[in-house]
Design goal:
The structure holds two protein chains of two kinds. Chain A has helices at about 40-45, 55-65, 75-85, 120-135, 155-170, 190-200, 215-220, 230-240, 265-275, 300, 305-325, 395-400, 405, 410-415, 420-425, 430-445; strands spanning about 5, 10, 25-30, 35-40, 65-70, 90-95, 140-150, 175-185, 200-210, 255-260, 285-290, 345-350, 355, 375. By secondary structure, chain A is an alpha/beta fold. A nine-stranded mixed sheet of chain A has the order 11-10-9-8-7-6-12-13-14. In chain A, strands 2-3-4 form a three-stranded antiparallel sheet. The longest helix of chain A is centred in the C-terminal third of the chain and has 18 residues, at about 305-325. Chain B is elongated, with a radius of gyration of 21 Å. The relative contact order of chain B is 0.12. Residues about 15-35 of chain B have low confidence and may be disordered. Classes of the chains: A alpha/beta, B mainly alpha. The interface between A and B is medium-sized, with 22 and 24 residues. Chain A: Keywords: Iron, Iron-sulfur, Metal-binding, S-adenosyl-L-methionine.
């Protein structure tokens, strides 16, 4: 039986090029495990001299899947394992977009907003659907809801009603329940936060603030043109100063920044501002490149190219880390699911009763076509389309329809990142493709003591 | 007669440190011979006869992945890893050196058995694979790998678990009794040589005995009480001690076992004498024995003793913090809550 070095590895250059005992970081993307490795040992691996390796290290290398049988088609094996891993997922994940309404008129948003809110009839059907999914997945060991919109808080009472019913159902079935919300933060007053956080298990609130006031107030404005930065930041400050803020989790608020050519140079200023406001221990930070959304092509128009974003992203990670923000793990993890679209027990429900596999589809005219929609809650389930385009992602990958992915050493920790983009012909790799080596080094510097030498 | 409150006060006053890991997931204090190291030891033995380290390390890795997937109940993934191990012509290579083949199969067969055990509907296949693994291990022991005895006793325990789950209580009793007698005894019993010949220390034996007793008692107390089989199994396994105890078996354990057997043998209400409490609720008594006796004592107490919530809280605290009982095991102390 012959073996080879897996193609799914990422390695840094030697960390200490002047030293006699040079070491580099090796990352197995098949398992998401990183380790320090001497230069001579790295050479042994590259030359396939596995019989020279002592048994304890050999068993680790096998466990980390750095060495694989020679005849293995690794790409196909990863897809096969992904499919099985997704099948083993016992959670039921729902995204509920209870309203098509939103106060904001962001230039990059692809949604078409109306004042429509989910009717009681659709809520009833949604509960029927949840019961159906639970009956189908008898070993379900968790239920989760992401509240999204439009702006979800424009349907606050609907959310409370549905949330109460779902929580009661979870309790009745003795299934753990968790929840999170993606909100613009404009209506997230402290009383609303308290109710959702303490009584409705919403333990994660993603609020988008597009860096500094100067930038945010040019793009995340109301449809009437009103600025929102001060209101949102004030809401965050009031909420984070409440005694109960950390009662359930350490940092319930996640601040997401949409970054493009217009605001990338002010990310660090915004980090400074958050720091000055005493928020470094209270919120998590996320840096997102501005992308196209539906028919809106902001990504093409003002988006940063991946290389530039990747370079800056490392700077932002370091800057935020030095300032004391929680930047604890920046390496990608091995996941079996690319995202929700490959899990048939993960569905999105909008206010009209439409069921879709991706949360970016509702209210977005580009995705009104049949191939994007599973069905409608008001119709019989035998009319549902279980072969929507994105659900077939692993089938298409396994047929080598995305050549870039089949050749990429990061595939097991990326899985193509966003299938929708590839189907739209906008396929672009995530930033980690361009800054993986820097991520490995930075992670090493952040938790040096934890990385073992193999 | 001792009251519930007296009992809880007694437990409360007992030494707080009780560092053995209890519950069904207890691990022995085997230090040198956890599962990883026995693999290294058997490989070292096999290396004198063959050079298949890389291949063996690969299958060992696959075996670990199979076990982890089964433990996480990811049975679809587990099925994938199983397909790499079961009926693999590379593993069952007839032309291969017998020591190499038995070494590899002694690692693989138990994990394949565990898959069928975890799957929960093919216990016969699990038992068959364990029987095969015992043949592999016997071959290795008979050709000079004496530490294979650690593997052999482990597969006896696994065979017991499978037999209980399959409802084959007679077979289960036989495996458990054989292995317990062997571990406690100074003789070879039904095995190739006395266990003392491969044992490293008294501490190691204590760790192993705690693990085996806990595994047997907890697994058996999980048998639905309606069948009445659980206590019969335990009585048969533990009532006849060895002709002579091994030198490393501690006096505290002997006393705890004696107390346990006296409670087991008596179907009626348990009298909680000072002597019994001292023997069973000692720091060195396995958690499962304490749990069993506690259950029987609680059943014997009249309902009115369960009105004091402080006492009940303390009892629960002892069960969780000292005995490390799982929620499921706590639920089996349900009469406490019902009476409360």
């Amino acid at each position: 039986m012959k073996f080879k070095l897996s193609k799914y590895i990422a390695a840094t250059e030697p960390l200490n090029p002047e030293s006699r005992n040079k070491e580099r970081i090796l990352f197995s993307t098949r398992t998401g495990i990183s380790m320090l490795i001497s230069e001579s040992f790295y050479s042994t691996l590259q030359h396939g001299e596995f019989d020279k390796i002592d048994l304890p290290r050999l068993t680790k290398l096998m466990d980390y899947e750095l060495i694989v049988p020679e005849e293995t088609d690794e790409f196909q094996e990863i897809i096969a394992i992904n499919r099985l891993g997704v099948k083993d997922t016992r959670g039921i994940a729902m995204t509920i977009q209870a309203t098509a309404n939103c106060q904001l008129g962001c230039f990059y948003c692809g949604q078409s907003h109306t004042k429509h809110v989910m009717s009681e009839e659709i809520q009833e059907k949604l509960m029927d659907r949840l019961n159906y999914l639970l009956a189908e997945k008898k070993d379900a060991d968790g239920m989760s809801v992401t509240w999204y919109g439009g702006e979800p808080l424009m349907a606050y009472s609907t959310i409370l009603n549905l949330s109460n019913r779902i929580i009661a159902l979870a309790r009745e079935r003795k299934i753990p329940y968790s929840s999170n919300m993606i909100t613009n933060g404009l209506s997230l007053k402290k009383d609303i936060f308290r109710e959702l956080y303490l009584n409705h298990h919403v333990h994660r609130f993603q609020i988008t603030v597009d860096t500094t006031k100067e930038h945010h107030d040019k793009r995340r404005i109301t449809k009437g043109g009103t600025e929102t930065f001060d209101i949102i930041m004030n809401n965050i400050l009031e909420i984070t100063s409440e005694d109960y803020y950390t009662a359930k989790v350490k940092r319930p608020i996640f601040v997401r920044m949409n970054i493009d050519v217009t605001n990338y140079q002010d990310v660090t200023s915004f980090i400074d501002r958050l720091c000055d406001l005493g928020l470094k221990d209270k919120v998590d930070l996320g840096f997102s490149p501005l992308n196209n959304w539906g028919e809106k092509t902001a990504g093409d128009d003002v988006g940063l190219d991946v290389m530039t974003f990747a370079e800056w992203e490392i700077e932002w990670f370091m800057y935020a880390y030095k300032k004391g923000f929680n930047i604890d793990y920046i390496l990608p993890q091995r996941n079996f699911a690319t995202c929700m679209v490959v899990d048939e027990h993960s569905e999105v429900y909008d206010a009209y009763g439409n069921i879709t596999p991706c949360y970016e589809f509702p209210y977005t005219p580009k995705y009104n076509e049949e191939k994007y929609i599973i069905g409608n809650l008001l119709k019989e389930s035998d009319t549902y389309n279980h072969k929507t385009e994105v659900r077939g992602w692993y089938d298409d990958l396994s047929e080598y329809k995305v050549p870039k992915c089949s050749k990429c050493n990061l595939f097991p920790v990326c899985n193509g990142e966003c299938p929708k983009k590839w189907y739209n012909g906008e396929g672009e790799c995530p930033s980690m493709k361009a800054n993986m080596e820097d991520r490995l080094v930075l992670q090493y510097l952040m938790d040096k003591s934890n990385l073992k030498t193999l | 007669m001792i009251s519930l409150k007296d009992l809880v006060s007694y437990l409360d006053a007992a030494p707080a440190e009780h560092n053995e890991n209890a519950g069904t997931s207890a691990k022995p204090n085997t230090v040198e011979y956890d599962k990883g190291h026995i693999f290294y030891a058997v490989q070292e033995f096999a290396s004198d006869f063959c050079n298949e380290r890389v291949k063996h390390a690969y299958f060992y890795g696959m075996h670990q992945k199979l076990l982890r997937a089964c433990q996480n109940k990811d049975m679809n993934l587990a099925g994938y890893f199983l397909s790499k191990l079961e009926n693999n012509p590379v593993v069952k290579n007839e032309s291969e050196n017998l020591i190499s083949r038995n070494t590899l199969e002694s690692i693989i067969n138990p994990s394949v058995a565990y898959y069928y055990y975890a799957e929960g509907n093919n216990y016969q296949k699990a038992a068959d694979y364990l029987a095969l693994s015992l043949e592999n291990i016997d071959y290795l022991i008979d050709t000079g790998f004496r530490d294979g005895m650690y593997m052999k006793i482990e597969q006896y325990l696994n065979s017991f678990r499978v037999a209980v789950s399959a409802g084959n209580f007679e077979e289960a009793t036989s495996y458990a009794k054989d292995v317990m007698l062997y571990l406690l005894s100074s003789g070879r019993e039904k095995f190739q040589f006395p266990f003392s010949e491969v044992l490293r220390s008294a501490d190691q034996l204590k760790g192993i005995l705690d693990m085996y007793i806990n595994a047997i008692v907890f697994k058996t107390t999980g048998i639905p009480l309606l069948t009445g089989n659980g206590e019969e199994v335990l009585l048969t396994v533990f009532s006849d001690g060895p002709a002579s105890y091994g030198a490393y078996v501690g006096d505290e354990l002997k006393a705890a076992l004696a107390g346990f057997i006296s409670v087991l043998s008596n179907a009626g209400p348990v009298t909680a004498s000072e002597e019994l409490l001292a023997a069973v609720f000692s720091q060195k008594a396995p958690a499962s024995i304490q749990y069993f006796v506690l259950r029987r004592l609680i059943d014997s107490f009249p309902e009115e003793m369960f009105s004091d919530s402080t006492t009940l809280v303390k009892l629960e605290e002892y069960c969780r913090k000292v005995l490390h009982l799982t929620d499921r095991q706590m639920a089996r102390l349900l009469p406490v809550k019902q009476k409360a």
